[in-house]
Amino acid sequence: MGREACNVMIGGEAGQGLATIGELLAKSLVRAGYRLVVTQDYQSRIRGGHNTFTIRVGGEDLQAPQEPVDLLAALNQDAVDLHRREMAPDGLIIGDSSLELGDRALALPFKELAEGRFFNIAALGIIGALLGLDEEIPARLLETVFGKKHPEIVDKNREALSRAYAWCREQAVISFKLPPVAEPPRRLLMNGNEAIALGALAAGVKFYAFYPMTPSTSIGLNLAAQAEKMGLVVEQAEDEIAAVNMALGASFAGAPSMTATSGGGFALMVEGVSLAAMTETPLVIGVVQRPGPATGLPTRTEQADLGFILHAGHGEFGRAVFAPGTVEECFHLTRRAFDLAERFQGPVFILSDQFLSDSYRAVDPFDLDQGPEARPGAGGGDIARPYQRYALTDTGLSPRLLPGLSEHLIVADSDEHTPDGHLTEDLQVRRLMMEKRLNKAEGLKREVVPPSWFGPERPELLLVCWGTTQGSAREAAGRLTAGGLKTAVLHFAQVWPLVPEQFVGRLEEAGRVVAVESNATGQLARLIRRETGFFIKDIIPRSDGLPITPEYILGRLSR
To answer: 10 Å Cβ neighbour count for 41?
Structure first.
């Protein structure tokens, strides 16, 4: 007898190839038609330390990670010792026969199945066989991945895989077989950072500057891999100050531009945020959060930078802040960020975190024809001379010409300036220019993505969340509703500006309201109180670097 879903954890140290096993297994499962949620937990080192790659897989759409482990593939003794207590009652530990696996375990003769460097492929075969995955699916994937670059090892990979499948078929072990998916649909295996990169490409990004900082680095690496094909420039700068200013310079010249970093790197970019606002230059900034302060936990997750992003940059000006909760939202909201940045001529933020950046999901192919595309600049033919780059308008939006593309002279200044761009200390002009810039903030409010509602109307319990806590909150709400407690979820995929009319009624109609946030102080709850007066007094916080799970929410609610 099989099961509807299975939580598979691969544990070991950096350098043992567990990420290779995990990614190959995840791709194979997606090709077989399954849905999944991947959670990667790794330490900030090249080799050693304890890492895990966890795949929750099933035939139905899965929203969140799961805490109990059904199948643990231990690549070393630490994996057994550290995760034994996390095993589900009917779980199974598999590992080499040289390890002390304990009860409910399957000892593997790795030395009989493969040469040392192919142990991870043998482990892939064992896990695939236990899940009931057709052997041909990972076999074809191995040929695809290694065939072109390393054709000499394809046969050895295939041999190790086949031996593992054959050995596993001879064992009498608990069944973890998943129900087969008839006519598997074509889906993509993608994590949050890959989706942000793809969204930027779909929006028409032409310049990306970054300084490597975990967990944001792979956005730039993915864009660099496509740069030649897609006609964009990717620049690894000497630091984050250079990165943000390079992106601003490229945007000023007319290239839709982006930069991304994490909290410590963004601290260096803050002056550039104000510069973008004053010069009214479009810029998309990705901030992939990790725990702070300072270096904090470089490879863990948190949602503690919301207040920082909201107030970054001296002076007062408008901004928009998106907080995608799914891989799909990473794609769509990045496209939207580029559109808003170009139309409202200023900084727009994408606020993600390590959990989503590294969490692979099975996603349906995106419709690239549906969605906005960044269109910088305006035509100069009908604009009177002298051109006023910062012309006063009711909307705050001025015609933006691009340098060198018309006969008009374009003057810009980081000081306060007159409508034609020249520095001024006329305080009446200062007042008018401030009003102009703040009027753009009013326009941004009219473009706000409203929070999403999941569940029954007028619930007894309402979970309020933002960003990547969406999936866990929805699954916890589903379990509570099934148990008789009418529960709903209000999820914010855009956390600034807030438009109270979109959600305050929901808060007031609910029985009990609880904020679910991966930070210690309930930053969104505090922001909602500041902007609306509604006090969410109950908070489920988490700030230990691990993602919020449904089990975590349910455990805190029961206290």
So the answer is: 20
3-class DSSP string for 495-507: EECCCHHHCHHHH
What is the pLDDT at residue 149?
66
Per-residue pLDDT reduced to its tens digit, 93-102? 999 999 999 9
| Closest CA relative to residue 299, chosen from 75, 33, 547, 466 | 547
Residues whose CB falls within 8 Å of the CB of residue 117, separated by 6 or more in sequence, listed in order: none
State how far the alpha carbon of 471 is from the alpha carbons of 57, 258, 466, 478, 554, in Å. 15, 27, 10, 11, 14
* Distance from C-alpha of 156 to C-alpha of 144, rounded to nearest angstrom: 14
Query: Rg for the chain (alpha carbons), in Å?
Result: 26
Residue 1 pLDDT:
46
Q: What is the dihedral of CA 147, 149, 150, 155, to 10 degrees?
A: 0
Instruction: Find residue 517's DSSP bridge partners.
Output: 541
How high is the pLDDT of residue 44?
78
The pTM of the full predicted model, rounded to 2 decimals, is 0.96
- Which of left, alpha, beta for 423 (phi over 0: left; psi -120 to 50: alpha)? beta
User: 381 pLDDT exceeds 70?
Assistant: no
Angstrom distance (rounded) from CA 229 to CA 173: 49
Q: Are 401 and 408 in contact (CB under 8 A)?
A: yes
Domain ranges of the chain: 5-186, 191-363, 383-447, 452-557
Task: Write down the pLDDT at residue 146.
Answer: 80
Q: Where are the alpha helices (DSSP H) in 172-284?
A: 192-203, 217-230, 240-252, 263-279
Q: What pLDDT sits at residue 380?
A: 60
Burial class (CB in 10 A: 0-12, 13-18, 19+), 267: middle
Give the fold, CATH level 3, of 5-186.
Pyruvate-ferredoxin Oxidoreductase; domain 3 (3.40.920)
Mean pLDDT estimate for the chain:
94
Place of tokens 């839709």: 256
User: CATH class for domain 191-363?
Assistant: alpha beta
User: What mean pLDDT is predicted for residues 329-344?
Assistant: 97
**pLDDT over 90 at 192, yes or no:** yes
Where does the pLDDT of residue 108 fall: very low under 50, low under 70, confident under 90, or very high at 90 and above?
very high
CATH 3.40.1190.20 for the 452-557 domain, yes or no: no
Range list of β-strands (E), 340-392: 347-353, 361-363
Q: Do 191-363 and 452-557 fold alike per CATH?
A: yes
